[in-house]
Amino acid sequence: xxxxxxxxxxVNLIDTPGHPDFIAEVERVLQLLDAAIVxxxxxxxxxxxxxxLVRALRQLGVPFxxxxxxxxxxxxxxxxxxxxIASQLCTHPIAMSLIHDAGSKLAKVEAADTAKEPHLGAICxxxxxxxxxxxxxxxLAPDRLTPQRLEHALADQVARGLIHPAFAGVAMxxxxxxxxxxxxxxxxxxxxxxxxxPVSGKIFKIERGWGGEKLAYLCVTSGxxxxxxxxxxxxxxxxxxSIQLFDDGHVDKVTRVGAGRIxxxxxxxxxxxGDSIGGENSTRGNLHFQPPTLETRVRPSRPADNAALWLALxxxxxxxxxxxxxxxxxxTEIFVSLYGEVQKEVIQATLANDFGLEALFEESTIxxxxxxxxxxxxxxxxxxxxxxxxxxxxxxxxPRPPGAGNRFAFEVDIGQMPASFYRAVxxxxxxxxxxxxxxxxxxxxxxxxxxxxxxxPATTAVDFRRLTPLVLAAALTSAQTVVCEPxxxxxxxxxxxxxxxxxxxxxxxxxxxxxxVITAGIARLEGxxxxxxxxxxxxxxxxxxxxxxxxxxxxxxxxxxxxxxPLRQRASANPFDRxxxxxRIR
Length: 586
Prior knowledge:
This protein is of the alpha+beta class and about 575 residues long. About 30% of the residues lie in helices and about 30% in strands. A six-stranded antiparallel beta sheet has the order 15-14-17-10-9-18.
């Protein structure tokens, strides 16, 4: 993270991880952006992580341009990489640089003169798809195509996601970078934040200071925050104890930060990644993160370090909530969720370097999910056996469309009891859905509260928190659930000579191939396959393709499994076993 200025424009530059295992971290950042620069190597070209990143940018509607880096390295390919960007990413790149002596230390970069041929014709042709008048004037009235008009048209279509200027250079030496920096100001859209408006912002990263203090990276979208201000967080107000502002290439301790800036905020002990401050609503909408599909058990190499390992992982879960840190019911085993094996290696290295802990990770297993099959309902009535709590709770569950997520709704008069009682039911519903009939997270489930009653003043929120799991478990048992496995969408590039072996491998893996294209000796296959089988395909790919195969995959959907459903160890008391549940919570 660095902040700098271009004239009077303040630019907040946020770097993101390049590996697909960290796509959740990338997507959190993308929601903050006005625009993005996608960096592609002139040697390696389009990589799996490039596809993942561009897919996320397009999903969120973030405008972007390309910077083709390392044109001085042996094997650099500017024109070929432009073609890859167009064909493999389904984008419309426009060459904005001229390269001389590519692939050598003598490589030079020259900005394309868009007022002269052949660049003028290429740009007009690209712009014509979104503005027919450009091509008409190019042919009939070229005098109308002033540099200002072309720049305005280019910026407009970049903002609309229609075209993507592609610059080239060498980041290490600065070659080609001035043209890129100029484009940030002239071609990419920016916002006009109001420092006098109501305070709002978004927390996108958490780290720990030297004394262990939690520091929240906050993007301020409106208003001004000063030290000792109270900020409205989802878990309640928190007092700002310190502000460190990213400014002009360094970080300064300040007493205030205004809209349009990013700062590290101290004092927000209850802050979590993704928390909104004030009335912040992302202009990019609510992104539904793809879930981690792998889980691994973690244990210390020395049993005496078990408590220290748990505390360290708790801090890491602050930085990345999607690792879903959990234990079994007896708290004797620790589990974390993962997107891939590289993420496991990073967590292991972080534990060693930052906490001095040597951790052992067992082989990763697949995370399943449960989806309700039908509609079910249940009710526990106050003062009526066998309900032991001073509360009435009625719930109905029903399936939602695949991928819609879980939702809770009230179908009762919410004015008849204290608000904390309703909040207790809603929070407990979402917590209970983390472990369904078979122990897996319940997904795509609508839960409605159909009955509620208290006995004032004896009833407390605890009665509702303890009763709700029993009612929800009964409703889910009535509706029944099916255990589902994660399915990945894949894109595979292999030499045509290896195609037969690859198709055989995919068939044995139960993959479904939806599309195949063969061009210039390269076969490109797209389809779906069970996430559990991806690692096996990855291991065999180099041998079948002589190291030339490239596999890109991402979570697509959940599908019901065949045969006996796998069970998952529970982390808490089991409300599906009433007697055991009541015994454990007392």
